Amino acid sequence: MELPRRFLPPMHMLRAFETAARLGSFTAAATELNVTQSAVSRQIRLLEDLLGANLFMRVRQSVALTEAGEIYASEIREALRRIGSATLGFKANPQGGTLKLAILPTFGTRWLAPRLPHFMAANPGINLNLVTRLLPFDFDLEPLDAAIHYGQPDWPGAEMDFLLPETVVPACSRALRARHELLRPEDLLRAPLLHLVSRPDAWERWFSTHGVADAVVHGMLLDQFALMTQAAVAGLGVALLPSFLAEDEFRRGDLVAAIDAPCHTQADGYYLACPVDRTWYPPLQALRAWLQQECKPGFEGSR
After folding, report:
1. How would you write the pLDDT of the chain (303 residues) with one tens digit per residue?
2. According to CATH, what is the number of the domain 5-92?
3. For domain 97-164+268-295, is the CATH number 3.10.20.90?
4. Which residue spans of the chain are classified as CATH 1.10.10.10?
5. From which residue to which does any coiled coil extend (predicted)?
6. Taking a C-beta distance cutoff of 8 angstroms, is the pair 129, 120 a contact?
7. How far apart, in whole angstroms, are the C-alpha atoms of residue 37 and residue 19?
8. From edge to edge, which strands make up the β-sheet containing 146-151?
C-alpha cells in the first residue's frame, strides 16, 4: 500500500535530523553537512512541525533527543542506510541488478565459491555481494536478498528452498586415531572431541544414532567448521564434519575417518531462505533456479 505523501518528509530534513541525532549537536551536524547551524535548526524545526511533536529537548545551548526522537532517529538511520546501499548497488551495476546473499562461512568457501563462476557466466548482468552470517536474522532489519541456512525450514517471514542434505563423519588425524585405538563408537568417549558452537548437541545425537545412550561429552568449543577442521588436522581432537565440506582434507590424507560410522541428517539440511516480499526480484529468481539445478542429485554443474 502506497503511503500518503504527507508521511514522506523531504530528504534534506531527514538528513539534518539524522546527522544532528547521531552527533548530538546542531553545530556539529552543520559542519558535517557543510551548511550553517541555523539551516540545520530550521530543517529540524520544519520536520518537527510536520510530525506535530518535538524531536529534541532544547536546554540553553545544548540539545538532547526526546524518547520518541531516539526511536525515530534509529528508524530513519536504517532507512537512509538502505537507500544508500541501494544507490551504491545501482551505481556498481546499472545494467543489471545487485544480489546480496548471506552465506555460512565454510559452506560459502568450500561448496558455493567454486561454483559461482558458472552462475556469474550465466548471469553477467548480476552483481553478487556476499556476507557471512552464522545465525538467522530479521530480513526487515538487514538489507539482504537471501541467505544460506542450515537446520530446519523454520525461518520466520521467508520462503525456504531445500538445497542439500548432510552426512557428518567423525574425522581426526591419523596419529590421533592410532593413539586412542578408535574402533567402535563408544571408543570416541576416550578421545578429545571438538564441538561447533552452533550445533551444541551434535555429538550427543551422533552417539545416540550409533547406540551409545546417555553419552557425556566434553571438549573444545569452536565457532566455525573451517577452524574445527584445522584443529582436527592438527590433532587436537575428533570433529564431526560434513563430508562434502572436508573432501580436500580427506583426499590429501590430512584427515581420516575416526571410525566408519557416518550419520545422515534426517530433519536438518541446507536451505536458501528468501524474504517473501522479495521473491519477485529477478536476480533472486535466477539464483534460486541455478541453486536448484546445482543441488540436483548427480548433477555435477561446474565442478
Report:
1. 455 666 788 999 999 999 999 999 999 999 999 999 999 999 999 999 999 999 999 887 789 999 999 999 999 998 898 888 777 766 665 555 889 999 999 999 999 999 999 999 998 888 899 999 988 899 988 889 999 999 999 999 999 999 999 999 999 999 999 999 999 999 999 999 999 998 888 999 899 999 988 888 888 999 889 999 999 999 999 999 999 889 999 999 999 999 999 998 767 899 999 999 999 999 999 999 999 999 987 554 544
2. 1.10.10.10
3. no
4. 5-92
5. none
6. no
7. 12
8. 126-132, 97-103, 146-151, 269-275, 158-164
Strands (E), 82-228: 97-103, 126-132, 146-151, 158-164, 167-172, 193-196, 219-222
* Second CATH level (architecture) for the domain 167-264: 3-Layer(aba) Sandwich (3.40)
Which cell is 127 given? 552483481
CATH 3.40.190.10 maps onto the chain at 97-164+268-295, 167-264
Burial pattern 265-287, b for ≥16 Cβ within 10 A else e, equals beeebbbbbbbeeeeebebbebb
**pTM surpassing 0.85?**
no
Cβ proximity of 274 and 139 under 8 Å: no
Instruction: Decide if 219 contacts 192 (C-beta within 8 A).
Output: yes
d(CA 257, CA 252) in angstroms, rounded, equals 13
Longest dimension (CA), the chain: 79
The C-alpha cell at 176 is 590421533
Instruction: At 118, list the grid cell.
Output: 558458472
